[in-house]
Every structure is written in structure tokens, then in C-alpha cells.
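Hi, does anyone understand the following?
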Amino acid sequence: MGTIAAMSNRVDLGEDETWVATLEARSYLYALFQILFGSEPTHERLEAMSTKATDDALCIWYGDESAIRHELAAALDTALEDDSEAAKAEFTRLFLGPAKLPVPVWETVFRDEEPFLFSKKVLGVRDVYRECGFLPAGYPSVADDHVALELGFLAELAKRALSYYDNSKTEECIDTLKKSADFLDEHALTWIPEFAMKISEESSCELYRISALAIKAFLLSDRKWLANFLQKD
């Protein structure tokens, strides 16, 4: 919730308005999705997300007339206005248990024929985190390839890229964006789109059904944006 609130303070866009607005929007949205898929939807969190800053970021990224923009904003508002207990119950069912999760929340399960936690792929994710000086929440008891941790890592990289740009550290900004592209290619995009589709089919809760569709669209469009900027395919 603190990250979302901090991202609400817009910087002076100056002559590079479109560029900075895009960096701000992707940083904000990665933080938003990390919270949606990693934290219980308390009233305080929903209140922090149901803001003009969220709508601005969605508008910048998806476009003013985007169905995803309007549906996600509406789902957040509905969850806030209605009893959030229903959203909390669905978060527990989808992501916590104790019953068997309807959709696995780990990369390994989607990518390995015989998956098990803390496999080589998981340790590979951990190596990437270490190389970037990122220590995920729950380390070392939570598997590093959990969807919320991977989104948290991408949120941290997006935050760093924006900070580097604000401080005129061009090389560091570009290097961080390259790291984001590599992580999307090697990890997040290998499984989160499939995970998201299964969540959207499994959940009857609009907040998580729409959030799942939105994160899939966001990751794919971010990779396309990075490719256009970095000329990396």
C-alpha cells in the first residue's frame, strides 16, 4: 500500500512528458499487480488502489477507451464499496488455502513436468534476484517463483528504471530495462499469461477475474514496449 501511495506523487514531466509518463505508469502498475496478487484485499489496500492515480496509470498504459482500464477500475471500486470480505475470501481460496489451490501460483508447476518447490528453475529465479540485489519478502521460506514475488521483482526494476531516469542516469536506466526484458522472456512470460487465463476462468469474483486478464495484457504489452525501446526481440 505504501508503494502505491508513493507512486501517486507525479514528477515534473517537462519536455519528456510521454516518456516519463510511461515509466511512471509501468512502475505504478507493476506495484499495483504485485499487491493484487500478493496481499489480502483489506479495506485500506482497496482504498489505496481505488484512486485517480490508478485510473491515470491505467489510462496511460491501456488507453482512454480500453475495456480493461474501465473494468479494472470498476472492479476495484466495487470491491471497496461492497463488503470486502467476499474479496478476502476469494483471495484466500485462490492464493493461500488451506484447501488445494485451484490454480498453482508457482512458475515451476507450469514449466516442469515433475515440479517440486525449490527446483533448479526456482534457484535460477533466486540467482537473478541476487544479481540485482533483490531480497524478496518471505525469503527463504517462500519459493522465489511465486507469482507475487516475480511481480514484486519486476515492480522493483520498474521503480529503479524510473529513479535512474529522474536522476539522469541513462545507462543505468537502460540496463535496468534490459534486465526487465530478460526476466520477462526467461521467467514471467513463460507462465503468468497461462496462470492468468486459468484464474480468470476459475474465479467468479470480478476483482480477480479482471485483474487476471489485465496482468496478462500488461505483461505482453510491456514486453512489446521494451522491445520497441531496446530494439530487442
Summary: Residues 206-230 form the longest helix (25 residues). The radius of gyration is 17 Å. DSSP finds twelve helices and no strands in the chain. The chain has a mean pLDDT of 87.
